[in-house]
Amino acid sequence: VNIDDLSTGEKQIVFRGSYLLRNSHNLKNGIVLVDEPELSMHPKWQTEILKFYRNLFTYDGVQKTQIFIATHSEFVLKEALKDQDNVKVILLQVKDGRTVVGPIEERVLPNIESSEIDYLIFGMSTYEYHISLFSYYSTLNKCEYIDDVDKTIRGSRLYDPGFDRKGRKGKMESLPVYVRNFIDHPEEKIRSVNEALLGQSIRLLRSIIQECQTSKTSEQSDE
Q: How big is the CA angle at 75 (ends 42 and 99), to the nearest 5 degrees?
């Protein structure tokens, strides 16, 4: 197969992989830096790419070269977190125009999601992240209906009734429920959510989820 006939993602593997293989013996006990290894790759390949680079420098089951990878891919990150004994994950966050290190422990969702990574690193408040947080909170509290979620949120010691917003038929809704209904029912055109309100609701959901997680952990310890 002519290299020119390969896809862009395949070329990434061939060019980078062959270069590193050619120098692999010289790189033993050294350091390799790879920027965005997931470039032009579909999700399945992104899932495999970390293993691919580690295998290039593994001899008799032992990795001989330390690899530093910079990535924006949730798939690469998920794979990295599966082997926390041998892989160190660091989040670099942008705050006030500066890049700072942020711990991966700031996640509240049970699984790696790009919307949460984007929130932690870039401070991006998105509908996708709010949906994931709301859904997880509902599951965490075994809420079957929206009214159950609303009641549970209002019952949190962190919730201020001043957050309430007027929804359908003048009914007052907790802020997260109000935002959820705005996202799920745009046809009603009775709610208005700007970026500031979305961010406020996300921060509130993260706080009460953390409170709930702490409470459940304490209950399990007591048992």
A: 115
